[in-house]
Every structure is written in C-alpha cells, then in structure tokens.
C-alpha cells in the first residue's frame, strides 16, 4: 500500500542556531548550508530539509533520527541518500514565505 507524508513550514519560524541545526541536519547538509551566502538561501535550505524530514516521518509512521538522514540532489531532484529509504520519493518546493515537502513510499 502506498503511503504519503507532507509538511509545510513557515520560513520565518526557522532557527539558524548551530545547536538546533546539528540536531536535525546530516553532517553533509550542515557543510552545504555553510557554503550558502545569503540568509534567505540558508533559511530556504533549512526549511526545505526540515519539511522533507517531517514528511518522511509521516510517510513512514515511525520516528527516525533526523540528523542520520542525508538529502542530496541528483539531476536537480532531491533524493534520500540513505540506502534504507531509497525507495521513497521526495519533493521539496519553496514559495515566498513557505517551504513544503512531500514523501511518497510506493
């Protein structure tokens, strides 16, 4: 049976504090974040990752260690790098003040 998870984040609620970020960003994601120049780009990056990981939790219907999940881009498409979750499709979008993500497990 297919399962879906979705999450939406208001970008202004995103905290860019390192202590907070290290609790849910994978080490590789944290490195990518620190390469971004603008606050807006950093906020969208974090909001998108947060929404995607929350959507993943809803899709799986179980708790996961958020900073163990690495979301990478392959041909401009977000994918979960962890082998355990490779069968789950994700999509991340940003619109003005919001970021949204969907996770689909077929």
Automatic annotation (TrEMBL):
The keyword Glycosyltransferase is assigned to this record: no
GO biological process, one term: fatty acid biosynthetic process
GO molecular function: holo-[acyl-carrier-protein] synthase activity; magnesium ion binding
Highest taxon of the lineage: Bacteria
Keyword field: Magnesium, Metal-binding, Transferase
Keyword Magnesium carried by entry: yes
Protein name, as recorded: Holo-[acyl-carrier protein] synthase
């Amino acid at each position: 049976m297919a399962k879906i998870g979705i999450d939406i984040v208001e970008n202004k609620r995103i905290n860019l504090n390192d202590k907070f970020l290290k609790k849910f960003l994978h080490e590789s994601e944290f490195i990518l974040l620190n390469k971004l120049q603008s606050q807006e780009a950093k906020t969208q990056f974090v909001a998108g990752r947060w929404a995607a990981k929350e959507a993943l939790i809803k899709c799986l219907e179980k708790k996961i260690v958020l900073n163990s999940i690495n979301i990478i881009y392959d041909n401009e498409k977000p994918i979960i790098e962890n082998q355990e979750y490779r069968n789950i499709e994700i999509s991340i979008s940003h619109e003005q003040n919001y970021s949204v993500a969907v996770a689909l497990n077929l």
